[in-house]
Amino acid sequence: MLHRLLRENIEISIMNVIILDNISMSLVREKFKSFLKLKQ
User: Is the pTM of this model over 0.70?
Assistant: First the structure.
């Protein structure tokens, strides 16, 4: 029982990390795009 709970928690946290990583990467990309526009 406990083992299953732990495994589900690990899967959920991995999903959260992946989602957060995607969000932060897209934010960084947007900032970089606007930065490039400013430089031109």
Answer: no
Structure tokens at 7: 């495994």
Question: For 13-39, what is the mean pLDDT?
Answer: 95
Both tokens of residue 21? 């990583």
d(CA 21, CA 24): 5
| Averaged pLDDT, 15-40 | 94
Nearest to 35 by CA among 2, 6, 27, 19: 27
C-alpha 20 chain-centroid distance? 2
Give the separation between CA 3 and CA 11, rounded to whole angstroms.
12
What CA–CA distance (Å, rounded) separates 18 from 11?
Answer: 11
